[in-house]
Design goal:
Alpha-Beta Plaits; two-stranded parallel sheet; nine-stranded mixed beta sheet; alpha+beta; 4 helices; 2 domains; globular
Amino acid sequence: MSNKYIIFYKPYGVLCQFTRDTPERKTLQDYIDVSDVYPVGRLDWDSEGLVLLTNHGQLQHRLSNPKFGHERSYWVQVERIPDQAALEKLRSGVEIQDYRSRSAKVQLLTEEPGLPERDPPIRFRKNVPTAWLEITLSEGKNRQVRRMTAAVGFPTLRLVRFQIAHLTLENLNLGEWRDLTSIEVDLLHNIVFNSRNYKYRLS
């Protein structure tokens, strides 16, 4: 069996699985007609963005296992405007339940990312401003980004993963998927398998 590698632009409200637990919830099955591929990690049903799927078990394991940390980048719309103190806390790591998040790359965006409208729209509170952050992590704990921003007092309203390693949402429309090019696959293999321990390091 040949290895398959695809990326998908997951909409809001889609479960990151092929099995259907309830008839009203959409799953990957509603969008992707490729057999025997599985998502590398998960993207919460109420989050949007890039999902990598493959049938390459070893690659899937290494990308999913925090031990082999790889970069994942998100656009995060939060309630209110974070100050520098909050941004520094996010960068250095925050206490979330029983663990402390790793160091992260965090910047406050000066412009809103060019994204399609969410369906349904986010909830707006009258007279409460919102801001967009770009956050890059090397780990993927359950609902981590939402818990990080909540921990510093700025709840997440919308979350979009736009990059996994070198793979991005570029040239993908909402709900679309495509096969990786041979160049993208080669680079992915190089990142995952040819680095001695492929540990994520912040510059």
